[in-house]
Amino acid sequence: MRKITFSLFILTFGINHSFSQTPPVAGANQFLSGKTLLDMCNQNDRYCATYIMGVLDAFINDDLALETCSFALPIGIKGGALNAMTIKFLKDNPNQLKYGAAGLISNLFSKTFPCPEK
């Protein structure tokens, strides 16, 4: 799990560094803001999809390790659909773009695909 978390950190740092023309939100403890992610998605779909899948993988792996549930993705859902949902959410909610991208992605999918009741 440390390798996955470290890999996500490296991926995020590398992407954030590449798109550093968008300043981070002052005082926010994040690598990427929603605005930076949307800018990245508008410039390079591959980086965008890689970031979104990395965030989802990190949450899924943490859920497995901690025996929790952040969201319940449907079996067989494609990465392209998750990518499109994220981009649509970011475009439809400009007031949310100041927040951390990973949190926005998690919140989106926890509302869209809630965990089953225990």
Short recap of the structure:
The chain has 118 residues and is mainly α. The protein is 64% helix and 0% strand. The protein has a single domain, classed as 10k-s Protein, Hypothetical Protein A, Chain A, CATH 1.10.890.
Keywords:
118 residues; mainly alpha; 10k-s Protein, Hypothetical Protein A, Chain A; 0% strand
Write structural notes for this entry.
It is a single chain. The chain is mostly helical. It has a single domain, classed as 10k-s Protein, Hypothetical Protein A, Chain A (Orthogonal Bundle). Helices cover 64% and strands 0% of the residues. Helix 1 packs antiparallel against helix 3, helix 2 packs across helix 3 and helix 3 crosses helix 4. 24% of the residues are buried.
The CATH architecture term is Orthogonal Bundle
Rg from Cα: 14 Å
What is the CATH domain class? Mainly Alpha
Overall geometric form: globular
The structural domain count equals 1
